[in-house]
Design brief:
By secondary structure, the chain is α/β, with parallel strands linked by helices. The protein contains 9 helices and 7 strands, in the order βαβαβαβαβαβαααβα. 44% of the residues are buried. The structure holds nicotinamide-adenine-dinucleotide (NAD).
Length: 264
Amino acid sequence: MSGLMNGKRGLIMGVANDHSIAWGIAKTLHQHGAELAFTYQGDALHKRVKPLAESVGSSFLMPCDVEDIASVDAVWETVKEKWGTIDFFVHAVGFSDKNELKGRFADNTRENFVRTMVISCFSFAESAKRAAALMPNGGAMVTLTYNGGDRAMPNYNVMGLAKAALESSVRYLAVDFGHQNIRVNAISAGPIRTLAGAGIGDARYMFAFQQKYSPLGRGVSLEDLGGAGLYLCSNLSAGVTGEIHFVDSGYNVIAMPQPEALKA
Ligand code: NAD
């Protein structure tokens, strides 16, 4: 343990199971000394998240459905009552109707557009404001995004729009909270097999394409994402805010695959 996070406390939002990106980040933060609180979305996930939290020494769990503002408020009230202050907040929450994560974006519905935006984008700003109020000594916030916010990816559809807006939120929140020495950044993860990831049409094609054509020639792991989470939540990234930090084996830098990759 490096002790980079010794004496630091924070809330992790978005663990569903041991494949969750939030869990990869939580584990790494714990290994480096952080004290963690978790939210879980509903009773069905409680039984999965509780043993994971216990394995990193935490019994601080709260239910949270970001569609329900009362439950969001209850989370932050509880954190305030129990801890008073925090040092970091990790937001790894996303949802869109999987029936609309396939086919044409043009066919997406208004209802799912609004719901996707609220859950996958606005929930970050809504909690960031509450988290910042508990960071009198500065702090760090991290959310999770995907390159489908910048480029048209097959089937990603309205999630792409939500990620574009989320990335913009990161820049605006970085400005809002910068004078409080609170840093706000996003990790742009390459495709990884999680519950949310599997909901995207032809997810296997996305994983395979990334592995074949990214400069590193592999997918990303929870450990890769945990390392980036540690960097952005710790003082290692003290001068960094408003950034979209890619952890995607370099896929975002290529315009087209190398000729030999096509022949392989
Ligand atoms: P995951 O399914 O493990 O996590 C998604 C989380 O969102 C779950 O914990 C779920 O409970 C939570 N959530 C959904 N709706 C919610 C609601 N109404 N209230 C509260 N929580 C809610 O999948 P993941 O891949 O770890 O996703 C985490 C984040 O990473 C998401 O923002 C996702 O878009 C992003 N991301 C994923 C990938 C990928 O390939 N898996 C790539 C880039 C970015």
